[in-house]
Amino acid sequence: MTTAPQLTRDPHGRLRLTTADGSTHEGVVPVRAFPIAAPTEGIALMGEDGHELAWIDRLGDLPEATRHLVEQELASREFVPKIRRLRHVSTFALPSTWDVETDRGEARFVLKSEEDIRRLGPATLLIGDSHGVQYLIRDLAGLDKTSRRLLDRFM
Amino acid sequence: MIRTPHSLPGASTSAPDTWQAELDSQLAPDEQVVATLETDLDVHLVFAPGRLVLTSRRLLGRSSGDEGWAAWPLRRGLSMQHHDHAGVGTLELHDAASRLACWRFTLAHNVAALQLNDRFAEQLTAHLSGQPAEHPDEALCPTCKAPLAPDQAECPLCRRELHTTPSTWTLFRLWRFAGPYRGQLLAGFLLTLAATGATLVPPYLTMPLMDKVLIPYQNGQPIDIREVTLLLAGLLASALLAWSLGWARTYILARVSERIGADLRTTTYEHLLQLSLEYFGGKRTGDLMTRIGSETDRICVFLSLHLLDFFTDVLMIGMTALILFSINPALALVTLLPLPFIAWMIHLVRDRLRTGFEKIDRVWSEVTNVLADTIPGIRVVKAFAQEKREAQRFREANRHNLAVNDRINKTWSLFSPSVTLLTEIGLLVVWAFGIWQVAHNQITVGVLTAFLAYISRFYSRLDSMSRIVSVTQKAAAGAKRIFDILDHVSSVPEPARPAHLAQVQGRIEISDASFRYGNRGVIRGVNLSIEPGEMIGLVGHSGSGKSTLVNLICRFYDLSEGTIRVDGVDIRSLRVADYRRHIGLVLQEPFLFFGTIAENIAYGKPDASRAEIVAAARAAHAHEFILRLPQGYDSLVGERGQGLSGGERQRISIARALLIDPRILILDEATSSVDTETEKEIQKALDNLVRGRTTLAIAHRLSTLRRADRLVVMDRGQIVEVGNHDDLMAREGHYYRLYQAQARNVDTDLDELPTARAEAKSPLSK
Hints:
- The complex is a heterodimer of chains A (155) and B (766).
- With 155 residues, chain A is mainly beta.
- Chain A has helices at 64-77, 145-152, and strands at 6-9, 15-18, 24-32, 41-46, 52-58, 83-89, 96-102, 105-111, 117-119, 125-128, 134-137.
- Chain A has 2 helices and 11 strands, in the order βββββαββββββα.
- In chain A, the strands form 3 sheets. In chain A, strands 1-2-3-4-5 form a 5-stranded antiparallel sheet, covered by helices on one side.
- At the A-B interface, α1, β7 and β8 of A face β6, β7, α10 and α24 of B.
């Protein structure tokens, strides 16, 4: 079921959705159903009460303006820095403090346990830090040798 | 300011220092800084330092890209909003018309952000009314809002798990467990010394045998029978001495190491039991079982066998070196020459082996985890005919295991032959140099024979010593995994100076309670006050936080923010075991331990008399069915109470709760998994249990909560409605909808409600 939602942004920065039946919803939040496996497919628009209002099959199907709004809103909510390089790890025992380069700048975080490194696919890793931020490694083989060697000690 | 691991050292010292000066110059003389927040993200969620400062007059903000400070004077209509999602917190400044600004930060700064948010509301009111802000004089802990003593920098209850890393010399930490056996260890050490000395006598006796007996005989002199007998008797005596001393030392040290291993196991298990449910939630059973079972055993074998052997070898090498130097320093030097090379080689391989063995350990737990996943879930596997897939998963884990082992074996297999080669070369050097010395009459043949006898032992020990590298690494890896458990501080910490609560009335006050699991807020801003003896029914969809709230009251977890007080005392200031004694818990899936029914009923009060047990069983309506069993109260029940029906097991668990006579009673879906008929039986038992106790009951079937004094309706971690049945029905809110849905279809579970709504939208969703 693909609806053509009428999305606008109010001055408070929140999204407003007008559905086909004419009802409007404030504070609409777009949520990706498969944020890692298929980020551009299956996006739900959720109302403030946490119920689904509309479902978007593919982001590309939306009209340009609406898509831009959805993407903007997603970008402001999504925070999964992609690790490009491991610069340093304080120790190979845990907890360990990692200095990394990500697509969102340099970061330092604490890895609490080996279980926080989760394999999502053959080459994809999701690393959770002690404050609940998730760091993503998209392509394990694409990392440089030093990073891979450091990472290898934890896996 | 709050320093966290998140603030990069470069970022938080240099730039903001100049900002601080700039900020100071901007402040009016009577303007005071009320709160400060360091942010570590910019609006586009890129890591960048920023700062938000609240003064008595305005809000000042700056991020790394800005030229100067942006300011928003306090005025009517301003409001600040705080929310967090997926590990990122957001503060937004709004006026009536629009959003003015927005700041982002990781949750490392969340405490400061919440504080700033609170202060902002206070300052705004103060600014508008002209009254100075009512600022509580006593310092409050930002997390739990408990008053702090004047000399306390941080609240002892909220001291978070420290990010300290365990030392690399983990094996030395085993000394803590060896301490009690100091005396026996010393005896073992002395015996080792003596035994090693005794084994070194025979090669020494080969010298006179060669030089004074055999060579003179070859040169035509007769053999001196007396001297030969003496020498041979010496050889026999030293062998017997070495044998008896070796036996004594091995026996004593093996005993000690076995005890150390047992202590280690018990201590680890006891510590594990103290850890909060949060810890168990994040760990796999198979992994924990391996750690306590085989890792402790591995350490024990290491201590009793490998370490002991290694220590003996080191002693032997030291003593041999002394003897060799005393006989002939030049030859001794040549003999010992290959030693540094071998040491260097061992060192070289050590690093690679250690990481390899850690990897093998992890892969091994992967293999056992597959088993631990599949075997308990075998019914599901078979029902969906996924045996092949599970077999494939196991094969995959095994293949990974094999690959890792192959890689490490490549290094490892090269190691031993290389040591042997070096040994042979070393012997060759001694032969060559020895023959040269004999030719130049510097040493006798006897001396050369003695040297060769010594060093062939010596090198054969070096070969076995090289094995210490791998076993030490294995044991160290095992010790690390055990100390990982031991170092894990319970997230439900015991207070340093526990308050005492002898008599409990059962008044529960929950204020501003929030709980975050990972980065998901499960409970948000819950306030609830429960009178002694009151029965509260908790109602809501599954996932609305009912069970979490109950777990928080039991203190299985500690709150992220806010407090829970029982009779006015913060539950975090009570000893966990003391506090839980006042709580009776009846769960949906009653867990019966292996043992008799009587033991199971008396689980919470092992010293209960038989009369007490029977009385509790009577009150729980369990007495009669227990008597129908062939062995009555002495009937054995299995791991999950096999042989008993769900309702029977539930009544045993009710009897268990009744026996400890708790002031606070928690019923978590106590009647959900049984049929209506059994439910009536259980309900009768529960009515006995509830009487006169503060009760929190969670139930799917709203009808089971008819006796509740108040119903609390929860939705997405918040309390949305409170009142009795009639009130809530009259209000036509959440509860009304839940009730209507159940009345329409008695069998409808609350869980199915949202899908029922979705059904209207799309026919596919059920």
